[in-house]
Design brief:
Blueprint: E1 2-7, H1 11-16, H2 19-26, E2 30-34, H3 45-50, E3 55-59, E4 69-73, E5 79-82, H4 87-90, E6 95-99, E7 104-109, H5 116-139, E8 143-148, H6 172-183, E9 186-188, H7 189-193, E10 202-203, E11 215-216, E12 219-224, E13 231-236, E14 248-252
Length: 254
């Protein structure tokens, strides 16, 4: 099973930049999208069906043009779960899960901490999400959590760890949370295969950051440790340029 995660920074904008042709070429079995910034009635869903994704699920934020996640699949899931049941998470459309025969795939869009109010909200979300996943894994151990975590895990995951040490996304407390979360029973699929620095999934639109590869790795496919032996490949796909993020991909034996 080929799984891709992609923060598209607006699905309608991405479609105008060739996203659909790229999707057909990339040919994932499942793709998790974040920051769709649209409701299903604003999206040409029939084009995704014609592209080979008859099963598509959209979970927008209640606030128009903000946040939201989606999952497109070639394979019919046994169950689709919208949200977590935790109001402050679900209000912003940040969690969507599909359950297949022997694994479940979640699209996650973890909040950013761009100001002090949002930083407090982010830490609350992180704590509640960790507790939610811990309970979920007692029922669904074969869990794959794809998405934009808005956190760089290690110094090799950011182009300038010294200057960014006090910036949200690379704060010690955020990194410690991600470390604890991964160590609770997950594998960072990309780092499972690649230990090298200078591999990023997000770049600022300012200062020609992408062309200079001054980026952050904040998009992950975290795979339950029970699935580690089934991991076959994991890569970042920086050639896709429909967003300020790029896709990340993992292949797991079905």
């Amino acid at each position: 099973m080929k799984i891709i995660s992609y923060n598209v920074n607006g699905i309608r904008a991405a479609l105008t930049k060739g996203f659909l042709d790229w999707l057909v070429s990339a040919d994932p079995d499942v793709i998790c999208l974040q920051e769709i910034k649209a409701t299903p009635d604003q999206i040409p869903v029939a084009t995704f069906e014609m592209a080979g994704y008859p099963y598509h699920y959209w979970y927008p934020a209640q606030k128009k043009g903000y946040s939201g996640v989606a999952i497109l699949s070639k394979i019919k899931p046994q169950r689709v779960v919208f949200g977590t049941g935790i109001e402050h998470m679900d209000f912003e459309g940040r969690n969507l899960r599909v359950d297949f025969d022997d694994l479940s795939v979640m699209s996650l869009y973890l909040p950013s901490g761009t100001n002090i109010d949002r930083l407090d909200h982010k830490f609350m979300y992180m704590d509640d999400f960790h507790a939610y996943v811990a309970q979920l894994r007692t029922e669904i151990p074969h869990l794959v959590i794809c998405g934009d975590y808005n956190i760089c895990h290690q110094a090799i995951d950011i182009h300038d760890p010294i200057r960014n040490a006090t910036v949200s996304g690379f704060l010690p407390a955020e990194r410690a949370w991600l470390d604890t979360f991964i160590n609770s029973g997950f594998v960072d699929s990309f780092r499972h295969f690649n230990k090298d620095p200078h591999h990023y999934s997000w770049w600022s639109y300012r200062a020609n950051a992408r062309n200079n590869n001054k980026g952050w790795r904040i998009d992950y496919i975290l795979v339950a440790r029970e699935l580690e032996h089934r991991l076959r490949r994991a890569v970042i796909l920086p050639e896709a340029r429909h967003s300020d993020h790029c896709p990340v991909m993992a292949e797991i034996d079905a």
